[in-house]
Amino acid sequence: MQRTMKAKPGASDPKPGPRTIGRLAREAGVNVETIRFYERRGLLRQPRRPDSGWRLYDDSAVWVVHYIKMGRQLGFTLAELKKLMGNVTRGRAFCASVQKAYEDKIDLMGEKIERLKTMRKELKKALLACSKRSMQGDESSRSRRFQLGPWPKSVRRGLRGGENQRSRSALCGRLCG
To answer: Which CATH number is correct for 9-86, 3.30.470.20, 1.20.1070.10, 2.160.10.10, 1.10.1660.10?
Structure first.
């Protein structure tokens, strides 16, 4: 007695045949609209429409969609992925461009992590100050301006003149007052 195994929903269609946009989407684990979006953005080549009216995709289309999904999970933008995929036929040059992109992305993430650490530190200071103020329960302190000192450089970007202290005072006044 032989048992037949059913394919999981969304798994590759086991039978060979034409790969329509719906089948491509199922095999790649994305929505049909995602395929169309990638085509509009120039990430995925749109096959010619034959006389039958159904566009048929080859095996490389599945690879491209998986590559895009993997790149997005690693934090790459669609523009970065499009640029990388432009080098795909260049052999070693493609590998070098991917390696450089990985290095650049790692550096960028390091910078973002440092900015987030600074913001976290500042939030902890603000929380401590608000907590102390709340614990005191002093009504007269609520009417006084809340003074914390200057914003760190990473937060000051975009703030002009006295806006720095006013913004912090307003924020803490609304949150704690």
So the answer is: 1.10.1660.10
Alpha carbons 20 and 18: distance in angstroms, whole number: 6
The whole-angstrom separation of Cα 121 and Cα 115 is 10
Question: Would you give per-residue pLDDT tens digits along the chain (177 residues)?
Answer: 444 444 444 444 455 667 899 999 999 999 999 999 999 999 999 888 877 788 899 999 999 999 999 999 999 999 999 999 888 777 788 888 899 999 999 999 999 999 999 999 999 999 998 888 888 865 545 445 555 556 566 555 555 544 554 455 556 555 555
What is the pTM assigned to this prediction? 0.60
